[in-house]
Design brief:
- With 136 residues, the chain is α+β, with helices and mostly antiparallel strands.
- The chain folds into two domains: 5-49, 2,3-Dihydroxybiphenyl 1,2-Dioxygenase, domain 1; 60-133, Roll (2,3-Dihydroxybiphenyl 1,2-Dioxygenase, domain 1).
- The protein contains two helices and ten strands; from the N terminus they run E-H-E-E-E-E-E-E-H-E-E-E.
- The chain has helices at 13-23, 78-90; strands at 5-10, 27-31, 35-40, 43-49, 60-62, 65-67, 72-75, 95-102, 110-116, 122-128.
- The chain has a four-stranded mixed β-sheet, with helices on one face. Strands 7-10-9-8 form a four-stranded mixed β-sheet, with helices on one face.
- The protein starts with a strand and ends in an 8-residue tail after the last strand.
- 18% of the residues are buried.
Length: 136
């Protein structure tokens, strides 16, 4: 299958459902009053309610930009990246790292953006100009 599973903390089901379904366009999977699963670009996210949401740590430095660690995200096509960027902007989501192109002109050139869900989880969406250069 090749999909990953990632479990993470959220403050509540209602705002999480709104963010992942209404804004990102994910499909809902199974859920209870304490957790909810989503199809996140073909991968399984499992969001669990917690009262101990972690503070952000911008200890990662990539191409001169400080990024929050930990974070999760997805690799999408350039077209999907543009559509998602526009949808996030229309929804009023603020970027913690503005949409930009890294490694411009190089084989690993990529578009990237970071934003927070409503529980303060950092998410990165990336799109590679050359999809076969992801691991180079």
């Amino acid at each position: 299958m090749g999909a990953f599973h990632y479990a993470f903390k959220i403050k509540d089901i209602e705002s999480t459902r709104k963010f992942y379904i209404d804004i990102l366009g994910c499909k809902e999977g199974r859920s209870t009053e304490n957790w909810i699963d989503f199809d996140f670009f073909g991968h399984q996210l499992s969001a669990h309610i917690s009262e101990q949401i972690l503070d952000l740590d911008y200890c990662g430095k990539v191409d001169g930009v400080n990024v929050p660690i930990p974070h999760f995200g997805a690799l999408v096509s350039m077209d999907q990246f543009s559509l998602l960027k526009e949808k996030l902007e229309r929804s009023g989501i603020k970027f913690i790292v503005e949409p930009q192109v890294r490694y411009q002109g190089q084989r690993a050139e990529q578009a990237t953006m970071f934003f927070l869900d409503f529980s303060n989880n950092p998410i990165e969406i990336k799109a590679f100009k050359n999809e076969d250069a992801v691991f180079e």
